[in-house]
Amino acid sequence: QLSSTFYDTSCPRALATIKSAVTSAVNNEPRMGASLLRLHFHDCFVDGCDASVLLNDTATITGEQGAIPNRNSLRGFTVIDNIKAQVEAACNQTVSCADILAVAARDSVVALGGPSWTVLLGRRDSTTASKANAESDLPAPSFDLANLTQAFANKGLNVTDMVALSGGHTIGQAQCRFFRDHIYNDTNINSTLASSLQANCPRASGSGDATLAPLDATSPTAFDNAYFSNLVSQRGLLHSDQELFNGGGTDGTVRSFASSSSAFSSAFAAAMVKMGNISPKTGSQGQIRSTCSKVNGS
Ligand code: HEM
Ligand SMILES: [Ca+2]
User: Per-residue pLDDT tens for 256-287?
Assistant: First the structure.
């Protein structure tokens, strides 16, 4: 029951305000587009797309930002706070933080040259967050194809959606601690790539843990289909990335997205709409937060 016209009368400037703020943030730092896309994913997979990921810890909320997949990893909160302040100035307590995340994700992809799609709107914001659910429901980079398939199926997403959405790794960076096992322990990685990554990501955990490498070394700030060609040539950065092309049932989809950017674009756009529809709060559920990092009145 989300609708693309939800704010047309209540806040007609909302979408343009978000787009211009996202475009300037991405022009200032291209990686921010990746960070904003990931925020929406990490929101939707944990209790639905309800901006739960944005809530800071309080005496009564143990939030998601401290969860293992998020801690010292998620970024973009300041950009979202800035967008929210601009939208609040235009329309007081009208546009949800969850919708801002969904629109910012789309606008980020577009700003980096990727496909566009119509974002459905009308999600409301949670009054709770769950560190435990973030740790149980977000897929880990150590996952194999069966684990990944299950994590996406749990959210109503099929394997085509999963492969398409994983194409989000066509942009952005990952820290050594998340790809160390893959570059030292796995054999399904191009040896030249493994050696060059090892130079900045020592085998011993603790050293160089936060050193960054691009998820798509071919074109890290362009939203294109190079991620999939990389997988075909065993140049995935994360163990979980390379699982999508490792002799299993998703090899064909990876090949098809590697050979057709239009096939990837349309599958990605469709899957983003599906992901954005995970358990939205509507009607009288939740609230429209005034500040994205805290529940109203707290
Ligand atoms: C398939 C399961 C997935 C796993 C296991 C996974 C895991 C990860 C990991 C470990 C990182 C690096 C984090 C860091 O080093 O701090 C990362 C980054 C990223 N992920 Fe995923 N991810 C998955 C799916 C997705 C999906 C579905 C999207 C979006 C549609 C996405 C978008 C991103 C982006 C854009 C980045 C880079 C963020 C930045 O540079 O700030 N990922 N992911
Ligand atoms: Ca959520």
Answer: 999 999 999 999 999 999 999 999 999 999 99
- Per-residue b/e over 186-204, b at no fewer than 16 CB within 10 Å? beebeeebbeebeeebeee
Q: How many helices (H) and strands (E) does the chain have?
A: 13, 2
Task: Specify the pTM.
Answer: 0.99
Rounded CA separation 254/61 (Å): 40
Note the residue count of the chain.
298
Q: Where are the CATH 1.10.520.10 domain residues in the chain?
A: 14-139
Q: Whose CA is nearest to atom 11 of ligand 1?
A: 174
Please state which architecture CATH assigns to domain 156-271. Orthogonal Bundle (1.10)
ipTM score over 0.90, yes or no: yes
Beta bridge partners of 121: 3
> Ligand 1 atom closest to Cα of 31?
40
Measure the CA–CA gap between 68 and 202, rounded to whole angstroms.
Answer: 21
**Residue 48 labeled ligand binder:** yes
Banded pLDDT at 220 (limits 50, 70, 90)? very high
Is 42 assigned a catalytic role? Answer: yes
- Structure confidence by residue, pLDDT tens digits, 33-91: 999 999 999 999 999 999 999 999 999 999 999 999 999 999 999 999 999 999 999 99
Report DSSP state, residue 188. Answer: S
Cβ-based neighbours of 19, under 8 Å, separated by 6 or more? 103, 107
Question: Which CATH number applies to 14-139?
Answer: 1.10.520.10
Residues forming CATH 1.10.420.10 domain(s) in the chain = 156-271
User: How many angstroms does the Cα of residue 169 sit away from the middle of ligand 1?
Assistant: 6
Query: Of 132, 131, 121, which Cα lies nearest the Cα of 98?
Result: 121
Those residues whose C-beta lies under 8 Å from the C-beta of residue 42, and which sit 6 or more positions away, are 53, 64, 69, 70, 74, 134, 138
